Amino acid sequence: MMINIADLPVGALAVIIGFGIANEFTERLQELGLTVGTKIKIIRRAPFKGPFEISYGHSSRLAVRPNENTAIYVRQVE
Q: Against a cut of 0.70, is the pTM above it?
Protein backbone atom coordinates (compact mmCIF):
# COMPACT_ATOMS: atom_id res chain seq x y z
CA MET A 1 0.00 0.00 0.00
CA MET A 2 1.47 3.35 -1.04
CA ILE A 3 1.32 6.16 1.54
CA ASN A 4 2.89 9.56 1.91
CA ILE A 5 5.99 9.67 4.11
CA ALA A 6 4.32 12.42 6.18
CA ASP A 7 1.71 9.89 7.36
CA LEU A 8 4.24 7.62 9.07
CA PRO A 9 4.51 7.69 12.87
CA VAL A 10 7.81 8.11 14.72
CA GLY A 11 9.70 4.82 14.77
CA ALA A 12 8.05 3.49 11.60
CA LEU A 13 10.09 1.59 9.03
CA ALA A 14 9.31 1.99 5.35
CA VAL A 15 10.65 1.49 1.84
CA ILE A 16 10.59 4.28 -0.73
CA ILE A 17 8.43 3.25 -3.67
CA GLY A 18 8.31 6.49 -5.64
CA PHE A 19 8.24 10.24 -5.88
CA GLY A 20 5.14 12.30 -6.60
CA ILE A 21 6.91 14.87 -8.73
CA ALA A 22 10.24 15.23 -10.45
CA ASN A 23 11.95 18.44 -9.41
CA GLU A 24 15.24 19.66 -7.95
CA PHE A 25 14.30 18.39 -4.49
CA THR A 26 13.55 14.82 -5.56
CA GLU A 27 16.66 14.78 -7.75
CA ARG A 28 18.74 15.88 -4.75
CA LEU A 29 17.20 13.13 -2.60
CA GLN A 30 18.29 10.59 -5.17
CA GLU A 31 21.79 12.05 -5.24
CA LEU A 32 21.88 11.61 -1.45
CA GLY A 33 20.99 7.92 -1.82
CA LEU A 34 17.23 8.05 -1.24
CA THR A 35 16.20 6.03 -4.27
CA VAL A 36 13.33 3.65 -4.91
CA GLY A 37 13.87 0.62 -2.69
CA THR A 38 15.75 2.49 0.06
CA LYS A 39 14.71 1.52 3.59
CA ILE A 40 14.06 4.45 5.92
CA LYS A 41 13.06 5.01 9.54
CA ILE A 42 11.28 8.02 11.02
CA ILE A 43 13.49 9.15 13.92
CA ARG A 44 11.64 12.16 15.30
CA ARG A 45 9.21 14.95 14.46
CA ALA A 46 9.12 18.60 15.37
CA PRO A 47 5.88 19.76 16.98
CA PHE A 48 3.04 21.40 15.07
CA LYS A 49 3.63 19.54 11.80
CA GLY A 50 7.20 20.75 11.56
CA PRO A 51 10.10 18.95 9.88
CA PHE A 52 10.99 15.38 10.69
CA GLU A 53 14.20 13.39 10.69
CA ILE A 54 14.71 10.14 8.83
CA SER A 55 17.57 7.67 8.86
CA TYR A 56 18.62 5.50 5.94
CA GLY A 57 21.59 3.47 4.83
CA HIS A 58 24.22 2.61 7.42
CA SER A 59 24.38 5.94 9.26
CA SER A 60 22.82 8.66 7.11
CA ARG A 61 20.22 11.06 8.48
CA LEU A 62 18.19 13.77 6.82
CA ALA A 63 15.67 16.37 7.98
CA VAL A 64 12.69 16.81 5.67
CA ARG A 65 10.59 19.97 5.72
CA PRO A 66 6.79 19.73 5.68
CA ASN A 67 6.43 21.27 2.22
CA GLU A 68 8.88 18.69 0.81
CA ASN A 69 7.55 15.49 2.34
CA THR A 70 4.49 15.29 0.09
CA ALA A 71 6.76 14.28 -2.80
CA ILE A 72 7.92 11.01 -1.18
CA TYR A 73 5.79 7.86 -1.29
CA VAL A 74 6.59 4.79 0.78
CA ARG A 75 5.32 1.35 1.77
CA GLN A 76 5.42 0.70 5.51
CA VAL A 77 7.22 -2.48 6.59
CA GLU A 78 7.28 -4.31 9.90
A: yes
